[in-house]
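JOB MANIFEST
job_type = single_chain_structure
chain_count = 1
residues = 245
[input]
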Amino acid sequence: MIVTPITEMLGIKYPVFQGGMAWIADGKLAAAVSNGGGLGIIAAGNAPADYVRAEIQKARSLTDRPFGVNIMLMSPYADEVAAVATEERVAVVTTGAGNPSKYMQAWKDAGIHVIPVVASTAMAKLMTRLGASALIAEGGESGGHVGELTTMVLVPQVCDATDLPVIAAGGIVDGRGVAASFMLGAVGVQMGTRFLAAEECTISDTYREKILKAGDLCTMVTGKRLGHPVRSLRTTFARNYAKAE
């Protein structure tokens, strides 16, 4: 067991969050991570509310440990999914791709810990004022679609800008990354891609093998010109997409 302010707050064994990966981080994966002592998180992504509710109920059938839901605020179903999270009273809501201000009071009234992803000190300060329980400072090494700052640069600045517990995210994959995050001032980490290798993850074996074999230059970011950058493996499709951009 590793005791930090975030493990004490959430009642988890290890200060490790599993990231909300759209259409991958389902109730089965979230439950497995929570059973392992971390915080599993169901990804709402662009999914409708009924899907998210079903995944919450699936996770509850597989674990009695705390788990969360990640709500992507750009989703056309964001309002409905926010309401489902409130009704189901999940332990944690994490948010991304927007400002969760309009939902936060309802979540807090339901006893939910609200932990937004932030990519700047300005957003960190705003979420602190609005009563977030903690913050996830996520650098561009993550899915590529968060911000321009790297994890190494962002995390210490966010830690200096708030008195809330900070979880570091972006490019963290092993104990060295966890130790580095703690030295930067974080009290926990969030990892996404690392959990693609888990047996409980529903990705194809081909995808998993490509992830495991990937080296330092095997990813690229597309979508910057469109305002929605995304990191992916450097496949033929991704290269052609970048060329079309």
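[summary]
DSSP finds ten helices and ten strands in the chain.
The chain has a mean pLDDT of 93.
exit_status = 0
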